[in-house]
Amino acid sequence: MSDDTPGRLTSRSRSVAGKVVLITGAASGMGRSEAHLFADEGARVAVTDLRQEAVDEVVAEIEGVGGDARGYALDVSDASAIESVTEQIRADLGPIDVLVNNAGISVGGPIDDAEFEDRWQLAMDVLLTAHQRTIRACLDDLRASGEGRIINISSTEGVGAQRGVLPYAAAKHGVIGLTRALAVDLGTDGITVNAICPGPILTGMTELIPEEHRDKFARRRTAVRRYGDPEEVAHMVLNLALPSSSYITGQAIAVDGGLTIKND
Ligand code: NAD
Questions:
Q1: How far apart are the C-alpha atoms of 185 and 192, rounded to whole Å?
Q2: Which among 110, 142, 108, 106 has a CA at the least distance from the CA of 127?
Q3: Among the four residues 2, 161, 176, 263, which has the most C-beta atoms within 10 Å?
Q4: Is the CB of 222 under 6 A from ligand 1?
């Protein structure tokens, strides 16, 4: 949407009002925060996650503050479910303008572990293969939108690695590769493709880490010396989804409190 008021130099919209936004893994943590933020900004949000009851709770929260959302059970490792759920979202809310690949799990383990092969496969299925499937399921809509946006949640583990997280780190590195290659392929379709690399964020994924360990890690590793809040990531997702962000593509943007630049 552009503003053609005579004399006005700026024309690009900073609004996602009316956009249809599909978010995976939106029942908790960053995904839930993203769902709320997009709804606060007037978008129509498809809240998806593993369990229907969990997405229904988030939809009720959003509707309770006047937002527009629908909930769908979607396991992103199920290829046929991706097809049927995106079809249903299209029927209920309209064509998808913004896709946020957010769902994730923590999968670690050493390479010589007996169950390594299974863990590797699980990490790839949920954290990487699912992304290209959701993207393919939304691609016609994103092209038709003219301002299609794909935002993939990678991690600071997508640009480096802590000890013991090999399957997760490999998949998250893959998300950045997928993001860059796809940005090049879709550049002339008006679709931007970007990745976000969150640092340590207090969510369902990290809440079981004892508080003293979290504090120690954040003080030692981040410039701001604290864990991040899911909303601090959600705002970057929203920024990348704006029509005005049309010249930002193929980037892996850290939202990490300075973790990846801190040398001391
Ligand atoms: P979270 O556990 O609070 O939320 C993740 C959500 O994904 C959950 O609701 C879960 O049910 C859902 N999910 C898991 N497997 C799924 C599947 N197969 N299909 C659909 N949904 C599924 O954790 P979070 O930290 O908010 O995670 C969001 C994203 O951020 C993930 O991709 C994660 O890898 C990434 N990340 C997290 C951190 C962190 O410190 N929390 C840091 C970097 C990246």
A1: 10
A2: 106
A3: 176
A4: no
Alpha-carbon distance 50 to 78, whole Å? 10
- Give the pLDDT confidence of 197-254 residue by residue, as tens digits: 999 999 999 999 999 999 999 999 999 999 999 999 999 999 999 999 999 999 999 9
Residues annotated as catalytic (active site), given as ranges: 168
- Regarding the beta carbon of 50 and ligand 1, being less than 6 Å apart is answered yes
Can you tell me whether residue 90 is helix, strand or coil?
A: helix
- Would the pLDDT of 2 be above 60? no
On whether the CB atoms of residues 203 and 28 are closer than 8 A, the answer is yes
Distance of CA 147 to the CA centre of its chain: 17
Could you give the CA distance from residue 87 to residue 246 in angstroms, rounded to a whole number? Answer: 26
Q: Is the alpha carbon torsion for 149, 155, 160, 165 positive or negative?
A: negative
Token pair of 234, please? 């959600």
Q: What is the pTM of this model?
A: 0.98
Q: How far apart are CA 98 and CA 193, in angstroms?
A: 10
Q: What is the mean pLDDT of residues 64-76?
A: 98
Q: CA-to-CA distance for 183 and 1, rounded, in angstroms? A: 22
Does residue 197 contact residue 154 with C-beta atoms inside 8 Å? Answer: yes
DSSP assignments along 173-184, one per residue: HHHHHHHHHHHH
152 within ligand 1 shell (Cβ under 6 A): no
Structure tokens at 25: 């893994």
Spatial separation of the C-alpha atoms in residues 45 and 67, rounded to whole Å: 9
Q: What are the pLDDT digits (tens) for 132-167?
A: 999 999 999 999 999 999 999 999 999 999 999 999
